[in-house]
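2024-03-11 09:14:02 INFO queue: dequeued item 3-hydroxyacyl-CoA dehydrogenase family protein, len=293
2024-03-11 09:14:02 INFO validating residues
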Amino acid sequence: MHVTVLGAGTMGHGIAQVSAMAGHEVTLRDIESGIVEEGIDAIRSNLDGGVERGKVTEAEKAATLGRITGETDLATAVGGADLVAEAVPEDLDIKTDVLTDAEDVADGDAVLATNTSSLSVTELASSLERPGNLIGLHFFNPVHIMSLVEVVVGERTDESTRAFGIEFVEGIDKTPVVVRDVPGFASSRLGVALGVEAVRMVEEGVASPRDIDNAMELGYNHPMGPLELTDVVGLDVRLDILEYLRTELGERFKPPQLLKRKVRAGKLGRKSGEGFYVWEDGEAVAMSGAWDR
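2024-03-11 09:14:37 INFO prediction written
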């Protein structure tokens, strides 16, 4: 199978990596060659880490990298692909534009996938000539480690597209969870609900971010607490999802002022170096602000 991934950022290069590791030929496309190169370098770094931990052999690393081609031209990247998966920013207009442009140059039977974490697959499909070919494939970060993929079925998604999506996810050694196209799907809706309540608890002075996270990690066996996870996902991403869910589902998803203030200040989490924690080399080393004591 030939898989084309549109967007070479964190999610895009992760999807490209797991697809190539499963034996698929992969084209990783972005608008600038430097961004594509950064994405491939990130894949190489992930594979190096796997080799160091004994999870990946040198031969598997070389074979995976050998299956990945970088590209900036959309028509070249998409032509001949069996699956075209977009992993561009979580913005309805951007995703709509990317998907419609991709459909124009893709083969007629190519399956299109969106990696949206909360936007309506049905609405994205409404701008396409072949809406039945679109499905949601919601991967989780880091893609090469997380085993879950939500397969989101839109109102006009064909049964053959649904089956293709499930088969693809299983073929890259992930576990598919099939959900209807409702706001926030299953994972984002539940995850954001927990995360926003944790932010409110910090805002109200109930406990420190670390103590709140420890409570969920040690008391409920969560692998990562809701505030550290918010930092990893990105405070700006969480804010966008909350605003969308508030519009669709009501005031229980109203974003806390603390979250808004941090985003306005550029404290976006791990990617900016500070959110609810201070981050160095990808690790949370201290709590941010008044809780850092």
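2024-03-11 09:14:37 INFO annotate: The mean pLDDT is 95.
2024-03-11 09:14:38 INFO item closed
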